[in-house]
Design a protein that fits this description.
361 residues; name from scop; disordered N terminus; four-stranded mixed beta sheet; elongated; mainly alpha; 4 strands
């Protein structure tokens, strides 16, 4: 009952992470009908292209048995050597068709999903040893559905093959007394017709089965709202923790900024709201650099630190607001403020030269 309740609560579509985790565990969109169709298509291709050459090569291999069996040596050593040579010859002839069929089966898997190795499916699990679980797998809903699907496919393909062969029934009767040389082409022609019909029907079956397998994959990986929230917390982080980390980083940045104020050349202020600390070393810097800035409480702390370390403070509200808005920390001031800032720094330098403490400008 609890499992049914959990399934009923899985109303949300799976996230990309959930689908990726499922694939890593070996849970894939996989239609065996596509693999069967690819294998059958490869078999049909073999029949159309290689049936003639393969039959001729097999006939050549069997020539000795058919034309001159009396010429064969019958001692055990000779028979073993003869049959060994025959088996090797047949293996070489059948190797290409076997490789093509194996390749078609692998291709049927690869067009559905990328090659991957997952140990999850082969891990030992206690429920696999349970007789009850085994009975459920053998006679459960999935097993019954697969049996009915196979039976329906067999009936449909059988009916289609019968529909193809029924109009040819007169020819089939004549083949009994036909010359052996004409038997193979006629059988090949009928086989190709039957296979083409079966391929057309099984192609539709494979497409439908893949659609249902895809729907089943997404359905079994649906998530509850709680699972989505937990995944978000795991991937994006706890919002409270992120806020705390952001607060700590901001505090450390302010501490570094305040530590740079004593080394500033001048602090430009709007008396109550803005403060921007600039540093300039003639010959070492191309332009003055902003080492600290702030508004309201932070601006007050910048001014207090500047006063404590005897850093000149110049009141220039328009320039203070413009610098605060346009220059980033540890960045040079924009060229449009060169002239105004040069005037401020020049004024401070002149005051220092005269050993005067600067007041308001």
């Amino acid at each position: 009952m609890a499992e049914d309740q959990d399934d009923s609560q899985k109303t949300e579509e799976p996230t990309a992470k959930r689908l990726a985790d499922a694939i890593e565990k070996g849970d894939l969109i996989k239609s065996q009908e596509i693999v069967s169709w690819m294998t059958l298509a490869a078999g049909a291709l073999l029949l159309m292209v290689l049936a003639g050459p393969m039959s001729r090569q097999l006939a050549m291999a069997m020539k000795l048995f058919l034309e001159a069996p009396e010429a064969m040596a019958t001692d055990p050593a000779s028979l073993i050597a003869l049959f060994g040579q025959l088996l090797r010859h047949i293996a070489v002839i059948l190797s290409m068709p076997a490789l093509l069929l194996i390749g078609a089966g692998l291709a049927g898997h690869m067009i559905q999903h990328r090659p991957m190795l997952s140990l999850e499916k082969i891990k030992p699990k206690l429920d696999k040893l349970s007789p009850i679980a085994g009975m459920k797998r053998l006679f459960g809903g999935a097993a019954v559905a697969n049996f009915l699907k196979g039976l329906a496919k067999l009936l449909i393909v059988g009916a289609a093959a019968f529909a193809v062969l029924w109009p040819e029934r007169m020819k089939l009767g004549l083949l009994i007394s036909a010359d052996p040389a004409a038997l193979l082409p006629a059988a090949l022609s009928l086989s190709v017709k039957v296979l083409a019909t079966a391929l057309a029907i099984l192609g539709v079956v494979a497409a439908v089965d893949y659609f249902f397998q895809r729907q089943a994959f997404y359905k079994r990986n649906r998530m509850t709202k709680h699972e989505i929230k937990e995944e978000f917390r795991q991937t994006e982080g706890d919002p409270m923790v992120k806020a705390k980390i952001k607060q700590i980083r901001s505090e450390k940045a302010r501490q570094r900024m305040m530590a740079a104020v004593p080394g500033a050349t001048v602090v430009v202020t709007n008396p109550t709201h803005y403060a921007v600390a600039l540093k300039y070393e003639q010959g070492a810097m191309a332009a003055p650099r902003c080492v600290a800035k702030g508004i309201d409480a932070i601006a007050l702390r910048i001014r207090e630190t500047a006063e404590e370390h005897k850093v000149p403070i110049i009141e220039d509200p328009p320039l203070a607001r413009a610098l605060y808005a346009s220059v980033e920390l540890d960045a040079e001031i924009p060229p449009e403020h060169y002239k105004a800032v040069a005037g401020v720094i020049g004024y401070v330098m002149r005051l220092k030269t005269r050993h005067l403490r600067p007041g308001s400008r």
